[in-house]
Each structure stands twice: as C-alpha cells, then as structure tokens.
From TrEMBL, chain A:
Belongs to the bacterial solute-binding protein 5 family. This is ABC transporter substrate-binding protein. It comes from Hymenobacter jeongseonensis. It holds the Pfam family SBP_bac_5. InterPro entries: Peptide/Ni-bd (IPR030678), SBP_5 (IPR039424), SBP_5_dom (IPR000914). Keywords: Signal, Transport. Residues 74-475 form the Solute-binding protein family domain. The keyword Nucleotide-binding does not apply. Residues 1-24 form the signal peptide.
Automatic annotation (TrEMBL), chain B:
Its main location: membrane. It is a multi-pass membrane protein. It holds the Pfam family BPD_transp_1. It is found in: Cell membrane. PROSITE patterns: ABC_TM1. It comes from Hymenobacter jeongseonensis. Belongs to the binding-protein-dependent transport system permease family. This is ABC transporter permease.
Length: 582, 354
C-alpha cells in the first residue's frame, strides 16, 4: 500500500469513528439537560451563592411556600395552605402555618414544626455557614408550636407588613433528626441564638456545626423530589427523581410539587456560542437566558428551527442607570432629570435586546397592572429638553474656547463643572452599549462623560463605597415583593441605598408601603412613589429585560415566565409529540 | 555540578516563597470585596429586610470570622487611630493570618476554598487531572511537529514560503478565534459534526471502559488541536530561523564540502546549536501546562486549572488563587532551572558561573 493511500484510509477511518461517536446521545441518556454558565459552587441551603445554586437546591429541598409558575402566584408547597397573618400591637406580626400531613423525609419520618424550628435556629448557629439566611430571615424572632398539633406552628416576626406572609415561607426546611439527633439546638430559643456572639463557646452547638459542615456537598438530606446523583465540579450536576417521593402521592398533585422528569442535569457550559452549538446538536435540551442576537439568529435559521422551540417573555429585571446624589453636581433633581433625557431607551432596547423587553416608568414591571403607574410616561430621549433643564438647574455654558457647563453655588467661590463618570460591569455588552449611547448624547450637549468599565467584584465594591458618579446595572424584581426600603430609604444609605438618595417624603412613602394593610392601599402608595421617583430621578429605569429560552421541541411543560430561572424545571418532561412555538 | 545545582534550587525555593507571600499579603488587602461577594447584594434586588446597616455589618463580621479574615494580617500591624504619644505599631504574635497560612503550607495544606469550602489541594489536583493531559499532549505534539517541520523547512523545499506564510497567519490569530473556528467548523451540524462540542463526556455513566476512552479522546481532539496550533508557529518559525542561520556558518559549509547531504548536516551538526533559543521556549511551556489554558477551557467547557484560577480571581477565592500562583510560580522557576540544565546539555561551553 502506498503511503498516500494509507493516509487516506486512516483519514476515512477517523471520520467514520468520529461520526459514529459524535452523534447526539439519542436514547442513551434520558436526562433533561439544562445549560448553566457557572458551577453552583455550594448547595448549602442556608448560604446559596447564586441562581444556579438556588435552582439546584430547589430540586433537593422544599420550602413552605413556592412560586407557582403556571398561575404566577405564591402557592403552598410544604405548607398545607397559604398562611394566615395576625398583627399584634404595632410592632409584631404572627404568621401561622400547618405542614402537609403527607410530607415526609426520605427515612419515612414526618416533617414537623420541630424541623422548621430547627432550621430557623440553624440559621443562627455559630460555626455554620449561614450569613445569607441570617440576614434574610433575621426578622423572624420566634416559633410558637401548637401544643395539640405537631405540624401547626406560628412564626413571630418583628415589624408589620403584608409581605411577611410570603417572606416567612421562603426558606428550605431541614431535618432535625438527621442533623441534630441529640437535640442540642433545643436547649436554646431562637431569640437567644440571634443574640449570641459568634465566638461564645458551646460544645453542643459546635458539634451541630461540625456535623453540618462535614456533610459532602449536596448530600444534605432534604424532602424535595430529587436526589443528587453526581456533581462533577465545573462540568455537570445530575439528579434522579426519588422512587417514593411524598409529593407524588398527593392527588391532584399541586403544580409546585410536580416532578415529571425522571432525570435532570445541569450542564456547565460557560461560553454561549458553545452552548448554542450543543443545543443545535441535541446535546442540550434547554438554554435559558440565551443572548439576544443568537436567539434571533437561531429563530430564523432554517436548519435549527424545526428542532427547537423559542420563548420570550418580559422578566422582572430592569436595567437602570443610577446617580450618586452625594456628588454636588448631581445633588439636585433638575440636573438628574436633564441627564435622564440623554438615554434613548427605545433605541437601546432595539440595539441590545432586538426590540424585545419593555420600556418602563419605574422599577415596578408594566406586567403588574395593579401597581404599575400607567399614568406616567417613560422618560423620552429629548436633548432639547435636557439642555433646557440643565440651564434651569443653574448651569451655564463655559465662555471662550473651553466647552462644557459650569455653575457657582451660593456661598461657594469654586465653580462646579458638569462632568460625570459612568461605571458599569465590563462583562455586559448591554451596559457598554448604554454607556456609549449616553456618552455620545451627553457630548452633543457639551457634557463630558468618562466611561469606567469595571470588573464585577470591583463594581460591587465601588458602588458600596460610592466610588462613582453614575452607574448602569440590572435591578432584580419579582411580582410578590415591593419592599423598596433597602434600595432607597435613608436608613440604608451607606449600605444598600447606593444612590445615597434620601427625602422625608420618600422615606414616609417607603415605610407606608412596607406596612400597607392591603394590596389596594399598597398599589396607591406604589403609584405615588413612582411619580415621586420620576420627579426626583435618583435613578433612570430604562427597560425590563426579556427572558429568552430556547429548548428542544421534544419538551413540554416549560411554563416560561419572567420569574427566575424562567421556566418550571420540575414540570418539564420529554414528550414524543412536539409543542408548537408560540 | 551538584553544589551549583543545589544553590540554584535553594534560590528557586526562596523565590517561590517570596512570590507566594507577596501574593498572599496583597490578596488580603482586597478581603473586603471577598466578604461583600459572600453576602447577597441587597442593593440590586427587591427582597425582605429593611436595609439596616447594623444587620449587614454583623453578617459581614460573621463571614470574616468564619473565613479567618478577622485576625491581624501580619506579625506586626500599624494602628490607624493610635494617639501621637503611643506606639504606632502593634506586635500581633503568631495569631495572624500570614503565620497560620505559612504553618499550614509547611504541612502541605493550602487552605480551604472560600467559595466551595473544599480543600484547595483537592480542587487543584482535580483540575490538574483534566489540564495536564490536555496541555501536556498539546505541548508534546507542538514540540515534535515543530522539530519535524523546521527541519523540513530548513532544507528549502518548494512549499517553504506558503507554509511559513500560513504559520505567520495562524500565529496572528488570537487563541479564542482559533478555538471558535475549530469548534464552529468541526462540531457544527451546519458544517461537519465530527467532534463533540463541549466537555469530556455525555453523562452516559453506564458505558464500558473502551467507550469511555473513545469518548474522552474524541472530546480532547479539538482543544488539543487548538492549543497545538497556537504553540506551533512560534516554535517552528524560531527553530527554522535558527537553523537557517546555522546552515550559513562555516562548519555547515565544511560539512557539506565533506560530501554530507543537507539532511545529515541539519540533523548531525546544525540542529543542536539551533536548539538553544527553542529550549527557552520549550521550558516556557511547563508553567503554561500547569496553569492551564483558560480560553480553550472556557470555549470547550473543560474543567481545568485555567478556569479554576479565573473563577477564583473573579469570585475573590483567595486561598485557591494563592495556591494556583504558588504552583504556577514554582513551575515557572523550575522551568527556568530546567532551561539552564538543557542549555548546559546543548552547549557544554556554557558554565554555571557564566
């Protein structure tokens, strides 16, 4: 055989070998494979670091209440029904629950109020990684068990608010028998643990913390529908449905307790182009949050379209530009309003999201018809209006060859110059586009804007330390909570109120929203608050991002929604029949 | 020979220690960001809570305590608010972060990951298990191909110019472009889907060993090709240029005058002398092999050292980052030592003192 012909033979054999081995794993593995950009890092239910971790933990554990994606409302999960709330005096709320009698742990033991009490105490147990839960559920100061019914209990909460009914049910319940068989935490009340210093020694608490930390990642026993069968770091997480899960015995099975697929897998593919290719090859079933351009391209591609379904609905994440109101040049509302007219929200929506998504007047989603203030109009892109407002704010064009705007405040000899820096996360092209558009618009008015693309961790630090004039970022909302106090109340300045904005009127409104006695009253206050914010303009809500999901045509029951992760993972199943693309 | 080598080794260890200590101390200056990234960012979402700064500060202190960041950084520290008539510096004894880290390091313990609470050594060993076969194979292929190609090019065949031009063109391509080109050409159902698109397997745990090996090898083809193609032009062009220069020297002319064929002149006379600059390049591949190839690992979704270190930097997972720097730093310094030894082998005229 000649060398050339043997090389040709080898090439043909290699191609044959490849094409045989690289076909889509049809029938080989029935798991529904979902793309994740990052590894969840930890599945500790008390300290979930990211959305991927939350989605994975949601398969292993159950909370009292969960979001029902089919009805877009909060529904009872481990709880038998939605809780009842009672206001006590002027500073306490009591929220009462009963756990479903069918709910059991994998050992067969029932889920009881003692498990809820244990979980709450674990959130404050020293030595346990629990700082996130501690911060989130610190408002629950006690659990009062019902002496006649081990499944019934009342949570006593500091403060009063309509959202406590939902907020008190939003944590995963953990088994006391498996994690604290000696009942060490029963020696302490919840309030005593909350007050206890971190370094105060106690051998019982230390033993509980040690046992908790010693559990292998993802091996914490839960009462959720799935168990983790494999976790290869930075590669995949595989889950299998429990053979005898308590939720499947309920008739009819509530939507939040459905677990349709036998196997699920989170596949970690950092690069979007690779993930798109895997989806087209059939190596992946669901690609959530697909980039806008790739989504639009695939939607039009004749080769990919028959095998895939495409979903796009508005999410509750709003892209917002914020002002540092502590800066003298940005301390007055007129200047901020002037600058807000330099954002071309409609054009940006087209450029960055291919026209999908929604413009907005505030951070309440336009989908929420009750609370969204539809009597207001989104801030228009109007440079003439911007210039008029700049003049109205006391700024004057510099004389001579220098460009830009200056003003001298009463009592100050040094003139202020209107120039701003804009900080945004460097890894987000949407933010970069917004910053560039704003810079170009502001430049046409003679306002100098310097752009500061910043690494994600440094961006968080910069916002916390007020090291910015303006920023662009996404604010994450949801249709169930309207507590805006951490974002804009004066008591959160230096912490989560990054704009530094404060005002007596807004503080009063925020406090009133938090304790509104019913949804109608809350809606009135929220509408008033949106009007106030448009006048004061501490931030410019630009548009709500869409949730874009591309999935295999074989899948049914995705129930795509604006809530994270964008679809009901446990309700998805593989079907022989394909669903039509909406 | 032995004493100079030991001296060099001692200096290498000293340099690695200095490097790791610097990175450790510098990283702790950004400890606040590490703490911030641990807690939910209440400034970016509508959630429960009243935004009370005291609660947040307490949670931050708890995180710092758990991670050991509440201890003084070094043996001595400056007191920021000390009165003028008192000492500005305070002695912290051995209860400091640096001392703890050093003691653990001497026991072979690189600490625990901030983000995953796993031992750093376990994470690095696992990542190296994926990285070394990938980068090692690519480095070996690149060196062998460069040797073969440069020898052929030095003989001035008719295809010398187009191949040189192609090598320069490939050299000009950034690695991510090269990797994406390979992926979109050879793993794309719209072109040819000869190779898998990502990862190392398809979650099929119930397959036999042969199938697993076959799948593993197939998954390695494109990443290895990307890394080999990225390293090949520089090695080949350098060696080719060095060989061309050596072939113009008097001793090469003498060899030809003795009647030796051009191939024999290259193989027996010119190659060894031309190898000197290439040895440095080959030694440079060692730290790159250990540090991984972040671009290729991201594009092909491989869980190697490059991604581990990049994620650790983004998430301020300093124990992992310092461990990675220690390893790659040590590999780099050892590579320099190795380069010196190879120089000594290639050209015995070189002496340690020189």
């Amino acid at each position: 055989m000649k060398p050339h012909s043997s090389a040709f033979f080898l090439l043909c054999a290699a191609i044959g070998f490849c094409s045989q081995s690289c076909s889509a794993p049809e029938g080989k593995d029935l798991a529904i494979r979902v793309r994740c950009a990052y590894d969840p890092e930890s599945l500790n239910p008390l300290q979930l670091p990211n959305q991927q971790a939350f989605d994975a933990a949601n398969l292993l554990h159950v909370s009292l209440l969960q979001a029902d994606f089919s009805k877009k409302e909060i529904a009872p999960a481990l709880a038998e029904a939605l809780p009842t709330a009672e206001l006590v005096g002027d500073s306490l709320t009591r929220v009462s629950y009963r756990i479903r009698p069918a709910a059991t742990w994998d050992t067969g033991g029932p889920v009881l109020a003692t498990d809820v009490a244990f979980t709450l105490k674990l959130m404050f147990c020293p030595g346990v990684p629990n700082e996130t839960s501690r911060l989130q559920f610190g408002f629950i100061q006690g659990l009062i068990p019902d002496p006649h019914d081990p499944r019934r209990f009342t949570l006593e909460c500091r403060g009063q608010g309509t959202e406590y009914q939902q907020a008190t049910g939003d944590f995963f319940i953990l088994p006391e028998a498996a994690l604290d068989p000696q009942g060490e935490l029963r020696r302490f009340s919840l309030a005593a643990l909350q007050r206890r210093p971190q370094n105060a020694p106690d051998s019982g608490l230390a033993a509980v913390a040690r046992r908790y930390r010693a559990l292998a990642p993802g091996k914490l026993p839960g009462c959720g529908p799935y168990q983790l069968t494999a976790w290869e770091k930075d590669r995949y997480l595989a889950f299998r449905r429990k053979a005898n899960w308590w939720g499947s015995r309920l008739r009819p099975t509530p939507f939040v307790l459905q677990a349709r697929s036998q196997k699920l897998a989170f596949v970690i593919i950092p690069d979007a182009a690779t993930a798109s290719l895997a989806l087209q090859r059939g190596d992946l079933d669901i690609f959530p949050q697909m980039p806008a351009r790739e989504f639009a391209r695939l939607r039009k591609a004749t080769a990919a379209r028959p095998a895939l379904s495409f979903y796009s609905v508005p999410s509750y994440d709003v892209v917002t530009a914020g002002f540092n109101t502590r800066r003298p040049a940005l301390a007055d509302a007129l200047t901020r309003r002037a600058l807000s007219h330099c954002f071309n929200a409609a054009g940006l929506l087209q450029a960055t999201q291919m026209g999908e998504g929604q413009q907005t007047v505030g951070i309440i989603s336009p989908l929420d018809r009750q609370n969204y203030n539809d009597s207001l109009a989104p801030v228009p892109f109007d440079l003439a209006k911007a210039e008029a407002l700049v003049r109205q704010a006391g700024w004057q064009r510099r004389a001579g060859t220098e460009t830009g705007w200056v003003r001298t405040r009463p009592g100050s000899k040094q003139p202020e110059v209107l120039q701003v820096s804009m900080r945004y996360r460097a890894d987000e092209t949407t933010f970069a586009t917004i910053a560039l558009q704003f810079k170009a618009a502001a430049a046409s008015l003679g306002i100098a804007v310097s752009l500061l693309p910043t690494e994600a961790g440094s961006f968080t630090t910069a916002l916390r330390t007020s090291d910015f004039d303006m920023y662009v970022r996404t604010l994450k909302g949801n249709p169930f909570m309207f507590n805006l106090a951490p974002l804009l109340h004066s008591r959160a300045i230096g912490q989560s109120n990054t704009t530094g904005y404060s005002g007596a009127a807004s503080d009063r409104l925020l406090d009133a929203i938090a304790v509104a006695e019913n949804p109608t009253r809350r809606a009135q206050l929220l509408r008033k608050f949106q009007t106030l914010m448009q006048a004061e303009m501490p931030w410019v809500p630009l548009f709500f991002l869409p949730t874009r999901i591309a999935a295999s045509h074989e899948l049914t029951g995705l129930h795509v929604t604006g809530l994270k992760p964008g679809f009901a993972l446990t309700a998805v199943e593989r079907s022989a029949k394909s669903t039509p693309t909406p | 020979m032995v004493w100079p080598l030991l001296r060099r080794l001692f200096r290498t260890v000293l340099a690695v220690w200095a490097l790791a200590s610097s990175v450790f101390l510098l990283s702790r200056h950004d400890a606040n960001t590490a703490t911030l990234l641990f807690l939910p960012d209440s400034s970016e979402s509508v959630a429960t809570g009243n935004g009370n700064a005291a609660d947040y500060a307490a949670a931050q202190r708890a995180v710092q305590h758990r991670l050991g960041l509440d201890l003084p950084l070094f043996y001595a520290s400056q007191q920021p608010n000390a009165p003028a008539n008192t000492a500005q510096w305070r002695w912290n004894g051995t209860q400091n972060q640096y001392h703890r880290w050093m003691v653990r390091l001497l026991h072979g313990d690189l600490g625990t990951s901030f983000r995953t609470a796993q031992p750093v050594t376990t994470r690095m060993c696992s990542a190296l298990g994926f990285t070394l076969p990938l980068t090692g194979t690519a480095a070996l292929l690149a060196v062998l191909t460069a040797l073969a190609l440069a020898r052929r090019l030095a003989a001035k065949p008719w295809w010398q110019h187009p191949v040189r031009a192609a090598l320069v063109a490939v050299h000009a391509l950034p690695l991510f472009v090269l990797a994406l080109l390979l992926l979109l050409t050879f793993a794309n159902p719209a072109v040819v889907a000869w190779f898998p698109a990502y990862g190392l397997d398809q979650l099929a745990a119930d397959s036999d060993n042969w199938s697993r090996t076959q799948t593993y090898l197939l998954h390695l083809v494109l990443p290895v090709a990307a890394l080999t193609l990225a390293a090949l032009p520089e090695l080949t062009l350098q060696l080719d240029a060095a060989l061309t220069q050596e072939l113009r020297t008097d001793y090469a002319t003498t060899a030809r005058a003795k009647g030796l064929a051009e191939g024999a002149v290259i193989r027996h006379h010119a190659l060894r002398n031309a190898l000197l600059p290439t040895l440095t390049q080959v030694a440079e591949l060692l730290p790159a092999m250990v540090a991984g190839a972040v671009v290729v690992e991201v594009v092909f979704a491989l869980p190697g050292m490059g991604r581990l270190l990049a994620d650790a930097a983004a998430g301020r997972d300093y124990p992992v980052l310092v461990g990675g720097v220690l390893l790659t730093g040590a590999a780099r310094l050892l590579a320099l030592l190795l380069a010196d030894l190879l120089y000594f082998w290639a050209d015995p005229r070189i002496r340690w003192q020189s």
